[in-house]
């Protein structure tokens, strides 16, 4: 047998266009609607089950069993099994359904499936489902239905044997039969003052059983309501078996037999009667001694959880003797000054155990080094698990005392390397806002970034290149394929940007492999453009592109909902809409800031006619507007910095300081042995080599992290106060292979001479092994011979 577990199957079903608003929900971040089937809708399981039945219809009950996202493949021979597995996997691939490999089990002779264990012998009960019964302790109080008046409750050999037989009967395969047809169902229900119990049977075979404890308010119910509640509990639990068929309900509470004829009912009973009337059932009275299974399930003793005082320390006996000895040494003349007690030593009171105390708290002197031992026990032991300074002080002050105890505890916690690595910060982010240079003219300083992993269009486009002017805020949105070569990107850049606005002075971008490639850097160097990259894992550096991308993504979502066709069909109009919309920082539309006049749109015609400018007026108006925009940008930047700095705190480090590096921004970059939520928040410590600007630092990274960019923003760093001898082992750190990639020249393809007026340059065409395939650049032969002499051998 093979068990296949699906993953996110619901999301493979699209919601009909007219039904999308029905899935709406609202959060403080805005209004959202599902375009695919979400979890939680009433008909979602039925719709998904219907889809799975239709997909697997040719093979159902031949070698496949399906329940929601659980698929079971069964075969008689290993050869057939391999064929059946391939058939199913090809079917899932064709339907674009996915399975979670970690939850799949292959080539089994026994499998746990839907609460049962299936093997060659048949279907058995899952051991985990009956663990509560197999570990059922012997009753310590008599079962009410098995006792009579004036009869002493005895627990002897016969009772033990009967109790063991009952447990065996309840835990072996015969008690869980598969239902056959829809006839002869019987429900046995019972209630006690501790819980509800019920059994579903068909022709004297148990189909299922259930029990639960009473809730707090249910313990106040009358017996009549408790017994009726047990029946309602069973009907709701097994509705899929009982709804629409005739069945019998057995209870040991005789008055329920006449519940349908009872005239006076309280509100609770009326509500339950509405549920009861949905079923075609007949209630039959059964004496208590005959209803033993349901009765036992309702009366199973639940041991109350024990209260454990986890804050009490289990100290070895010799610790008290060591404290007593240390106190004697501390009172000697040569140690009194070190203790710093002065006149307070007379306030200590000696107890019956000869130990000095301050009130009721044991005095721990400096002498003997016992303070460090107690602090370590109260902080690093298995039953304390690194509490914070305040919690640790409250835990210890009940039993111990010394001068400066709270200060010592705070210093100890601050030096704990484990706490530094795993504890979250609850303070303002570090580093004041540092703003980029303000541009002087239009399209002199630009930013750029990519929106990737978009739905592939009919033209094959799946990426948008977003390029924004930092002065006028005007932008270009270029549709492209993620697989474009660097030659193609350079050609697109020249055709769409350079041809319209000229060559910019500087470009701000993140550290995308396309922007950091040798080809792109050589290309921009030839154009005379300076490249400014963000620090590692700090996207705020390129905040202009990130904010524009956020707006563009909102426009893309709206376009998909309101208009038909591929998103790249509407991208030019999205660019038009963005550039013609009011921008708060420059207090005008980017189009007007760029061209000096408002854009004519199909709706607004106010720009036509007598209001148009001509001649020298346009030049003067454009120059004035650039000056005005710069002033508005400066005011907006001041407001933004003031607002941002209110939520930040200044933080500076010195060269050679040891710091910890935040791991949380590295999703998909660095993977730890402890995956997911169990990975540390910080890694290190690392030494600071150099300060880069006001809020960035260059770190000395180990060989294991050689591919990671070594300059980080101060918000990703934390001061390390731990001992230098402590160091987190990096053998569990695995850096993404893409980051370890270093571009290297492969071979010299061509050679040519370039003659200038007074000298001659020898250039060679170099083939590089970039991440995105081979790239070619022309380099000086002299430089290449120095760096890579092996290419010329």
UniProtKB/TrEMBL annotation:
Listed PROSITE patterns: INTEGRASE, RT_POL
Molecular functions (GO terms): aspartic-type endopeptidase activity; DNA binding; DNA-directed DNA polymerase activity; endonuclease activity; metal ion binding; RNA-directed DNA polymerase activity
Highest taxon in the source lineage: Eukaryota
Any one biological process term the GO annotation gives: DNA integration
Domain Reverse transcriptase, chain residue ranges per copy: 1-118
Signal peptide (UniProt feature, chain positions): none
Entry keywords, A to Z: Aspartyl protease, DNA integration, DNA recombination, DNA-binding, DNA-directed DNA polymerase, Endonuclease, Hydrolase, Magnesium, Metal-binding, Nuclease, Nucleotidyltransferase, Protease, RNA-directed DNA polymerase, Transferase
Domain Integrase catalytic, chain residue ranges per copy: 435-598
Name the UniProt record assigns to this protein: Integrase catalytic domain-containing protein
């Amino acid at each position: 047998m093979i068990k296949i577990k699906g993953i996110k199957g619901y999301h493979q079903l699209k919601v009909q266009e007219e039904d999308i608003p029905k899935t709406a929900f609202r959060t403080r971040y805005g209004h959202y609607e599902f375009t695919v089937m979400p979890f939680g809708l009433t008909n979602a399981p039925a719709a998904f089950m219907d889809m799975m039945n239709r997909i697997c219809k040719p093979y159902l009950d031949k070698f496949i069993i399906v329940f929601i996202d659980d698929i079971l493949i069964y075969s008689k021979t290993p050869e057939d099994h391999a064929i059946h597995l391939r058939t199913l996997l090809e079917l899932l691939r064709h339907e674009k359904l996915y399975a979670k490999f970690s939850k799949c089990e292959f080539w089994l002779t026994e499998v746990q499936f839907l609460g049962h264990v299936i093997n060659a012998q048949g279907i058995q009960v899952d051991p985990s489902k009956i663990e509560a019964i197999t570990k059922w302790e012997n009753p310590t109080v008599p079962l009410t239905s098995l006792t009579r008046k004036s009869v002493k409750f005895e627990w002897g050999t016969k009772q033990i044997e009967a109790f063991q037989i009952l447990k065996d009967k309840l835990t072996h395969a015969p008690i869980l039969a598969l239902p056959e047809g829809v006839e002869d169902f019987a429900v046995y229900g019972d209630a006690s003052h501790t819980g509800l119990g019920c059994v579903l049977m068909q022709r004297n075979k148990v189909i299922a059983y259930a029990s639960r404890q009473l809730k707090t308010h249910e313990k106040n119910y009358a017996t009549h309501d408790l017994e009726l509640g047990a029946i309602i509990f069973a009907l709701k639990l097994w509705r899929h078996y009982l709804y629409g068929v005739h069945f019998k309900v057995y209870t040991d509470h005789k008055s329920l037999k006449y519940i349908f004829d009872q005239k006076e009912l309280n509100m609770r009973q009326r509500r339950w009667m509405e549920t009861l009337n949905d079923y075609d059932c007949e209630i039959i009275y059964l004496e208590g001694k005959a209803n033993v299974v349901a009765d036992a399930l309702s009366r199973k003793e639940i041991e109350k959880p024990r209260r454990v005082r986890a804050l009490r320390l289990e100290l070895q006996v010799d610790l008290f003797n060591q404290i007593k000895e240390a106190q004697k040494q501390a009172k000697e003349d040569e140690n009194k000054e070190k203790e710093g007690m002065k006149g307070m030593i007379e306030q200590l009171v000696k107890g019956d155990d000869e130990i000095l105390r301050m009130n009721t708290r044991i005095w721990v002197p400096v002498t003997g080094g016992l303070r460090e031992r107690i602090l370590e026990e109260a902080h690093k032991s298995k039953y304390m698990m690194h509490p914070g300074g305040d919690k640790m002080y409250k835990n210890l002050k009940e039993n111990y005392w010394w001068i400066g105890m709270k200060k010592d505890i705070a210093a100890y916690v601050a030096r704990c390397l484990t706490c530094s690595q795993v504890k979250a910060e609850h303070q303002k982010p570090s580093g004041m806002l540092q703003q980029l240079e303000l541009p002087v003219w239009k399209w002199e300083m630009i930013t750029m970034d990519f929106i990737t992993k978009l739905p592939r269009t009919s033209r094959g486009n799946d990426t948008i290149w977003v390029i924004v002017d930092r002065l006028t805020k005007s932008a270009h949105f270029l549709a492209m394929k993620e697989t474009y070569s660097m030659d193609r990107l350079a050609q697109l850049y020249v055709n769409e940007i350079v041809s319209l606005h000229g060559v910019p002075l500087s470009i701000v971008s993140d550290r995308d492999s396309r922007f950091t490639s040798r080809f792109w850097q050589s290309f921009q160097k030839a154009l005379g453009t300076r490249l400014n990259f963000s620090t590692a894992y700090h996207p705020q550096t390129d905040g202009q592109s990130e904010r524009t991308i956020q707006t563009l993504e909102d426009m893309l979502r709206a376009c998909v909902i309101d208009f038909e066709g591929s998103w790249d069909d509407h991208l030019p109009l999205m660019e038009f809409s963005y550039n013609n919309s009011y921008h708060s920082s420059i207090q005008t539309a980017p189009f007007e800031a760029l061209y000096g006049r408002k854009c004519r749109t199909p709706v607004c015609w106010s720009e036509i006619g007598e209001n148009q400018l001509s001649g020298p007026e346009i030049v003067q108006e454009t120059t004035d507007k650039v000056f005005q925009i710069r002033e508005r940008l400066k005011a907006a930047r001041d407001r933004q910095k003031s607002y941002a700095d209110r939520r930040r705190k200044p933080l500076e480090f010195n060269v050679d300081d040891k710091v910890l590096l935040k791991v949380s921004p590295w999703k998909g970059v660095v993977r730890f042995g402890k995956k997911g939520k169990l990975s540390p928040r910080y890694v290190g410590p690392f030494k600071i080599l150099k300060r880069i600007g006001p809020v960035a630092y260059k770190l000395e990274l180990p060989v294991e992290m050689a591919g990671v960019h070594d300059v980080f923003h101060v918000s990703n760093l934390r001061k390390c106060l731990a001992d230098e001898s402590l160091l987190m082992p990096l053998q569990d750190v695995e850096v993404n292979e893409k980051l370890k990639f270093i571009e290297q020249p492969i071979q010299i393809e061509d050679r040519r001479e370039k003659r200038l007026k007074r000298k001659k340059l020898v250039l060679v065409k170099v083939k590089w092994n970039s991440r995105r395939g081979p790239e070619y650049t022309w380099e000086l032969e002299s430089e290449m011979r120095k760096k890579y002499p092996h290419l010329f051998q």
